[in-house]
Design brief:
Strand content: 15-25%
Number of strands: 15
Strand order of the largest sheet: 1-3-6-9-12-14-15
Shape: globular
Number of helices: 7
Oligomer: single chain
Order of helices and strands: EHEEHEEEEHEEEEEEEEHHHH
Distance between the termini: 22 Å
Length: about 220
């Protein structure tokens, strides 16, 4: 069985331009502080090719943070990632960003002297599903296999294989037991050669972890 889904095609669905694979789109953009794995896609009702301009917000670079998205993620229309460059100083009386207006205000205190909170990168695991109009805040880590409900505002870390929803997003339930999650993390099917991924699509979609584990053992994938 040959894999004929090319991860380098920006438009992977024949005849449709509302869905893009993000990795080749990123490669074309030249943006340096974003990483996306193979087969992760974004769907948009209008123009998905503007994802990195319209959905990754405040990416000015001075915070020196990055956005890192794994493989096989499904990102629905309107999902936005807020980069740490949106931050304001909050330790003093005012949160107003005087320095960004330049001239005398910047001379009074340059932006490099502002006591801005330090954030880590936004990290999204593999096989994460983002529902419609999700917002992800700076520094958040989202584990493998998580599901993010529509219009959720993700302001804190999401465990692997958790389902979260709301504002702020809270864990509604976990998809698997703690032991099953450990097995899935060990299997890491998203890193298998794509011909093996294609072979186990029925298991991935409607099968059991035990079946996936047995296949991995049979083909020496773990």
């Amino acid at each position: 069985m040959n894999n004929d889904i090319n991860p380098e095609n920006i438009f992977p669905i024949d005849g449709f331009t509302n869905t893009v694979f993000l990795k080749p789109l990123l490669d074309k953009s030249g943006i340096q502080n974003i990483e996306v794995g193979d087969y992760s896609y974004y769907s948009d009702f209008d123009d998905p090719t503007q994802f990195f301009e319209q959905n990754v917000l405040y990416n000015f670079g001075f915070s020196e943070t990055a956005l890192r998205i794994g493989k096989f993620c499904a990102i629905a229309n309107g999902t936005k990632f807020i980069m740490a460059d949106a931050n304001h100083a909050t330790v003093g009386v005012s949160t107003f960003p005087f320095a960004v207006f330049g001239k005398g205000w910047a001379e009074a205190m340059p932006l490099t002297d502002y006591p801005l909170k330090k954030y880590e990168d936004i990290r999204v695991g593999n096989d994460v599903w983002f529902g419609y109009d999700v917002t992800v805040m700076p520094g958040v880590k989202i584990g493998n296999g998580a599901i993010i409900g529509s219009k959720a505002v993700v302001a804190s870390d999401v465990p692997p294989y958790a389902i979260v929803a709301g504002n702020p997003a809270k864990v509604i339930r976990t998809r698997y037991s703690e032991e099953e999650v450990k097995i899935l993390e060990q299997l890491a099917w998203w890193d298998w050669p794509i011909d093996h991924v294609q072979a186990v699509i029925p298991v991935l979609v409607k099968g059991q972890i035990q079946e996936l584990h047995a296949y991995a053992q049979q083909h020496q994938l773990i």
